[in-house]
Amino acid sequence: MDGLKLKILELLKEDARRSAELISTMLGVPEADVKQAITEMEDDHVIVKYATVVNWSKVDDEKVTALIEVQITPERGRGFDSIAERIYLYPEVKSVYLMSGAYDLLVEVEGKTLKEVASFVSNKLSPIDSVLSTKTFFILKKYKQDGIIFEEAEGDNRLVISP
């Protein structure tokens, strides 16, 4: 991938609302080149979606998010892919990652209540034949996501005392 496309991706990652006109000004290249590069990246599925990062703790729509470590037995000929696909097709599942280390998949699940997430794990995820074990961790608070800090740290307001 050429340098222009990488620079465009970085700028769009910071703020997906930036227009081709603004990006061309920021990079000092013709707007037509920026539009063409963005179209090519969308066609090649390099740019998959433009999304908004939401601090859900500031919204009255309460959600419960859990990270689930999953140990699985890979399927012959398909490895981890077919099991990961089976898992990510559930609407409760927000993300699935193949991991190195003590477990194979990290699954991010979202529900309205703890009980709903627990029900997903016990009734849908654990019964899958290839799943050997699961370990669920509930997210209590998000401080930072996708490079965005949700709440600024409070400054030290104590008086300075000097000897």
Describe this structure in words.
With 163 residues, this protein is of the alpha+beta class. The chain folds into two domains: 3-43, Arc Repressor Mutant, subunit A (Orthogonal Bundle); 56-141, Alpha-Beta Plaits (2-Layer Sandwich), CATH 3.30.70.920. Helices cover 33% and strands 21% of the residues. The protein has five helices and six strands, in the order H-H-H-E-H-E-E-H-E-E-E. The strands form two sheets. It has a four-stranded antiparallel beta sheet with strand order 2-3-1-4. The mean pLDDT is 90.
What are the key terms here?
163 residues; alpha+beta; Arc Repressor Mutant, subunit A; Alpha-Beta Plaits; four-stranded antiparallel beta sheet; two-stranded antiparallel sheet; 21% strand; extended
Count of beta strands: 6
Output the helix-strand order.
HHHEHEEHEEE
CATH domain class of the largest domain: Alpha Beta
- The tally of helices reads 5
Strand composition percent: 15-25%
| Overall mean confidence score, pLDDT | 90
Shape: extended
Indicate the topology.
Elements: H1 3-14, H2 20-27, H3 31-43, E1 64-72, H4 81-88, E2 93-98, E3 105-111, H5 114-125, E4 131-138, E5 144-145, E6 148-149
Antiparallel strand pairs: 1-3, 1-4, 2-3, 5-6
Helix pairs in contact: 2-3
Briefly say what this structure is:
The chain is an alpha+beta fold. The protein has helices at residues 3-14, 20-27, 31-43, 81-88, 114-125, and strands at 64-72, 93-98, 105-111, 131-138, 144-145, 148-149. Keywords: DNA-binding, Transcription, Transcription regulation.
